[in-house]
């Protein structure tokens, strides 16, 4: 039987250059729509059981974030539920995955995928709770429902927490975070969750870029728009995912905004704030510092030493979610970044940073939000 490689499925993404021999498979990562970004890969390998496979992805030196592949190990799965790391080498130009599969069909990916059917089930499961309502804000360009979950009652007294996740579709750890967050938030026996919902209403968009997710994009929607550069002037035609979220935010107001992402290069969980906005002051700095210190106290996987360089005063790019929301709504606004690699401070080499660890960080954030409410 000849080796076969497929990616024509939800979130799949790879081009096959050659695959005649197990030890000489050559692949390439195609561009997202818009021909600007590429990095996400996800493919199925068939008929290679017990063969020493050498899979060379030929163009990682030309992707959006080449340093994302330094000290990186690809993930693999037989059942698409349990993902493990496999030996991977990067020389600055090519990424080489070496693995001997023990199954007739196996999958390889940049990170554990979060497929559309799981997204839909996430919403269905959440709606089993009496606390949850779902609203379709719009149809995406590819015709998917762009769904907002509202958890709790807005009685005019409760604080408003807005959570957006997976603006960049290849950052699948963001929706795994959402799953963990919801699992704890909707646990009727969890006293922290009950207290949080007694004092706050949560508006949550589990996947801001469903079209890009299904298409196997790293960063863009169906129109090739990087949604995290659309907030200042979103387009109802080209970036409706942002346009209709912003319109809803204007109706509700925001006390705390939390945008969940993944970072290709840094092997840490960290938070980026809005220090560069025009209205930044000591009070906002204290809110940000206190939240980061609190989350680090709750979760050993989170740290405050490493992250992005801090923006200089009045240098913000209001096209970005965190900066736009902080300035527009005068709220505590943050971006959570999780790694594609392993967590350098709490390494687990066999799985690296993973879907399950992302879920646990989501659970930890329930407590961080609850303990932050009095400071908002």
Verbal overview:
- This protein has 376 residues and is α+β, with helices and mostly antiparallel strands.
- It folds into 2 domains: 4-109, Sandwich (Immunoglobulin-like), CATH 2.60.40; 116-375, Aminopeptidase (3-Layer(aba) Sandwich), CATH 3.40.630.10.
- The protein is 26% helix and 23% strand.
- The chain is built from 8 helices and 17 strands.
- It has a 7-stranded mixed β-sheet, sandwiched between helices. Strands 1-4-10-6-7 form a 5-stranded antiparallel β-sheet, with no helix packed on it. The chain has a 5-stranded mixed β-sheet with strand order 2-3-5-9-8, with no helix packed on it.
- Strand 11 and strand 12 (145-151) form a beta hairpin.
- Helix 2 (173-185) crosses helix 8 (355-372), helix 3 packs across helix 8 (355-372) and helix 6 (282-298) crosses helix 8 (355-372).
- The longest helix is centred in the last third of the chain and has 18 residues, at 355-372.
- The radius of gyration is 21 Å and the shape is globular.
- 48% of the residues are buried.
- The model has no long low-confidence stretch (mean pLDDT 98).
């Amino acid at each position: 039987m000849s080796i076969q490689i497929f990616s024509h499925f939800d979130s799949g993404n790879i081009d096959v250059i050659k695959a005649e021999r197990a030890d000489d498979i050559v692949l390439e990562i195609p561009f997202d729509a818009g021909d600007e970004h590429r990095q996400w890969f996800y493919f199925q390998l068939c008929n290679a059981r017990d063969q020493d496979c050498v899979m060379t992805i030929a163009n990682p030196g030309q992707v959006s974030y080449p340093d994302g592949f330094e000290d990186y190990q690809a993930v693999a799965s037989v059942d698409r539920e349990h993902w493990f790391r496999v030996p991977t080498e990067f020389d600055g130009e090519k990424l080489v995955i070496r693995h001997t599969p023990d199954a007739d069909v196996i999958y390889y990916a940049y990170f554990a995928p979060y497929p559309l059917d799981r997204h839909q089930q996430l919403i269905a499961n959440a709606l089993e709770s009496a606390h949850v309502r779902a609203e379709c804000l719009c149809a995406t360009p590819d015709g998917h429902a762009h769904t907002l979950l509202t958890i709790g009652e807005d009685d005019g007294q409760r604080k408003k927490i807005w959570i957006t996740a997976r603006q960049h579709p290849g950052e699948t750890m963001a929706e795994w975070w959402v799953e963990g967050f919801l699992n704890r938030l909707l646990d009727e026996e969890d006293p922290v969750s009950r207290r949080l919902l007694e004092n706050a209403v949560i508006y949550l968009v589990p996947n801001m870029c469903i079209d890009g997710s299904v298409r196997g994009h790293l960063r863009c929607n169906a129109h090739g728009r990087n949604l995290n550069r659309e907030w200042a002037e979103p387009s109802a035609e080209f970036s409706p995912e942002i346009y209709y979220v912003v319109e809803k935010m204007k109706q509700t107001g925001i006390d705390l905004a939390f945008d969940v992402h993944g970072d290709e290069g840094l092997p840490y969980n960290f938070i980026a704030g809005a220090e560069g906005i025009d209205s930044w002051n000591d009070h906002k700095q204290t809110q940000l510092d206190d939240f980061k210190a609190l989350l680090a106290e709750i979760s050993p996987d989170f740290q405050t030493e490493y992250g992005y360089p801090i923006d200089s005063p009045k240098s913000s790019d209001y096209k970005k979610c965190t900066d736009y929301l902080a300035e527009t709504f005068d709220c505590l606004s943050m971006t959570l970044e999780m790694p594609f690699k392993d967590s350098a401070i709490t390494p687990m080499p066999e799985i690296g940073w993973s879907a399950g660890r992302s879920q646990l960080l989501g659970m930890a954030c329930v407590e961080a939000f609850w303990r932050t409410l009095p400071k908002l």
